[in-house]
Amino acid sequence: MQLSFLRRTVVGPAVLSVQDIKIGARISTIHVTLSQRPDRPRTADGKDDLEVKVVGYITVSPPDMEEGPIRKGTWGLSPPPVSGSLANGSVNLEALAATGKDGAWMRLPRPPPGLTAPQNLEIYAPRPQGPMTLESRQKQVVDQWTRFKPGGNTVARWSNEAVMFLADMFPAALDRMGAMETSRLLAMEGVQEGELQGNAHDKGAFWYPTVTLNIDLRTRIPPEGVEWLQSRVVTRMLRGSRADLDIVILDPQGELIALSTQVALVVNASRNTKGRANSEKL
To answer: Rounded to two decimals, what is the model's pTM?
Structure first.
């Protein structure tokens, strides 16, 4: 799936338009657009046409075409994730759900109400080791275990469709991107790299709008779903306020579920909180 985010979206009604581009026996491709009302005051006649917010191409193939055994390469997360309490270093997910902690892992606080999308998740991450300076925040690898909690109340199970949502949900990685952008802005002001350690405060709040999002579902989740999924998020580079990210999603058995790449901007939060009625362009 390849998505391009053209304009800011809002929580509320949307219209999905689906067009068959190529329907084949093994591989089919469809074009999808998501439209909403313009993000600006109504016109004098009180009418507003819908405008396209997101466009995408989705390539699908039927499960029964995936025949034969699977061959796997010698691949794994590097560096390995922080250990849990089990003898082999794995995380005890039952203990994590029951107590909110296991080994070096802990449940993250619920995000503030203004952050709508993360309200649908229950996220667990390694406890911080030492003081969180600006320098250390840039170096951390972002790992998380996540349970799906639609509506913020009842724990559900991950489906193939819900994985697409998870691929764009990583609060700790946003903090890392904010630290990288702060470091970049300070460098533009002449602050040397060695002086960053004592400066752990961002230069204001940031907004992280997605520009493009690509997701490749590698292993289908069974119809009954799974309770837990693990994500590894790596920010490869931040240049000119544009961040390039790689996301790997695994199930509790270490099976590769999905790969994702994303381009996102790191801009002042006022670009999102102000001018909503003015349809400000990025």
So the answer is: 0.86
